[in-house]
TrEMBL record:
It comes from Streptomyces bathyalis. It comes from the Bacteria. GO terms for molecular function: hydrolase activity, hydrolyzing O-glycosyl compounds. Residues 124-419 form the Glycoside hydrolase family domain. The keyword Repressor does not apply. PANTHER family: CELLULASE FAMILY PROTEIN (AFU_ORTHOLOGUE AFUA_5G14560). The lineage of its organism: Bacteria, Bacillati, Actinomycetota, Actinomycetes, Kitasatosporales. This is Cellulase family glycosylhydrolase.
Amino acid sequence: MSFVRSALALALVAGLAGASMPEPQAPRSGHRPAAQLPVRAAAHTADSPEPGAAVPPVEDWEPPLSTRGRYVVDAKGERFKLRSGNWHGASGTWTGSGSPDDPANNHAGEKSDRMPLGLDRAPMPEIVAGFRELGLNSVRLPFSNEMIHDERPVADASVAANPALKGKTPLQVYDAAVEALTDAGLAVILNNHTNTTRWCCGVDGNERWNSGQSTEKWESDWLFMTRRYRDNPRVAGADLYNEVRRSVLDDPNWGLGDRHDWFAASQRLGDRILQESNENLLVIVEGINWTGLPVDGLPHGRPTLEPVQRLSHTLVRSGKLVYSAHFYGYTGPNHSGATGIGETSDPRYRDLGRGELHDVLRRQAFYVASQQDQHFTAPVWISEFGVGGRDGTGAKERAWFENFVDFLVETDADFAYWPLVGWHEDRKGNGWALLQWDSAGRRIGVFDGDDWRAGAWSRLVGTPGRTGEVPPVDRWSMLSPDHGDFVQSLRMRKLPDWDEGARKSACPDGQRLAGLSHSGNRGLCTDAGARGLSAPDGAHEVVRDERHVEPGHDWAPGHTKFQCPPGQFLTGYSARGAAVSAALCTEARERLGGGGRAVWFDRSDSRPPGAGGGDFAYGHHKGQCADDEYAAGIAWTGRGGSSGAPDALLCRNLR
């Protein structure tokens, strides 16, 4: 038995060491005016700027960023497509054995010294200008928790091309990178890539946000970082953790409520960031990267964003959630990416034909952005993808990249290439980076005439997709008090506990309760048909009896009815076990309709045809008011062995 367990652990280590990283030669994974910076280039083609030319003008955008349905928009409501790349290094390149000061012990021989890569070889303004030349408008900037607290000054040699950074700590260098990027007009997405400053992503102590550190420390570090850049409006997002995956013994999960629950951890931290440190940031949640042991015959796979369809996030500030996913050709929906020990017979993404690949991508991630008016609808940012360039890439890998880029163009997807910066000597080295510098500071890039990726990259960044204003959309939000309170109203969070000892749910401010499930305690909120329905600073009431049921209007005979008073509508509820405990009612800013109808769902799915929101309580009976109605009451019974779960809603016309 111990032999079997050891063999499985070895397979896991080997498998996950390849699951989230490219194959050996590849690395992966006050508003200021934009500067016009010169470009250094080694060779150019007709498709690239002339030597010494100014980089393209940065697009005009006004922070902060938010979301409208599947699109990211700026403060003017105009589409801001995240055309991004990863400037890695601050999260570490050390492989975990030997001296981290020896390049041989750093991935692909590229030693970052706990800083964004390349600062020993090129001035920071030149690197940033290169990003602009590539057609980017945003940069994902990884960091580690260890880097934040590292007080050791960086070595002089590590910033040889940036002497102003001598004597700085890694965090101070990170500060300088943030400033240089945002001064150039680029949006910055902060990314907590690892706990320790080392190369990602195997069974390395960085599998989860709380591997080797507490969840409390993880949250505290994030609040520190988001407060640190709060006054820089072009710091636009917080990418909460990179490639959550299995450790030797444990899988992450999506909604079980334990210390490995990535859904609950990201939900809580996202709310804390928006409530306590920086309300303007996008909160970016990546799907689960890997579960199970990569051994044929045992369950294993890459869940990615598939669980979102049944359990989605609802943040305390609507319009701030972005989901993300990673795709590399050498991995697969059930393939870890390993070769040798830990390799399974499952196909890799590069083994799939064009049509099959696109179907898998839709299933694993892109459905989130392609289905409108669902509780899970949000932008999907492919925050890592990449491929080798000049050397050593086979026909399958090239075909995969072309097909993948075609799919990004076809779906008008937001993206971030991995990586932007790498090293070369005599045009040889790590070919995955789009820009590479040698030890003498000479740069080569994807547009220098000998990189087969140039056409696909030009097509990707040159196809604008949707532009201009994105009209406001209806918002649909899931309430999931599965393991505790799920109060998403900032207003109610500031008030005393309105039903002590019960699990409480409340819609985000500006939304109303539209649906409930008979069991499971799930709810659905929306602002469809009546945005801003709540009265400013209006009253609310917690209803625990039938005092507001009008005489002669028993809309649920034989049942207990928690009904809102006239002029108020349902925005929340509480439960003890399965039983309804109270209804939360909020004053409307306008006159509401009366009368109404009972929607029963104790034995059926009673959602109106064509109603928005989708299946907000998978596997449970549920009921929902129509889009032009509001919920004004909840009916339930404890008789006949009933659990006291919701049985019916009182739905009334909005006007």
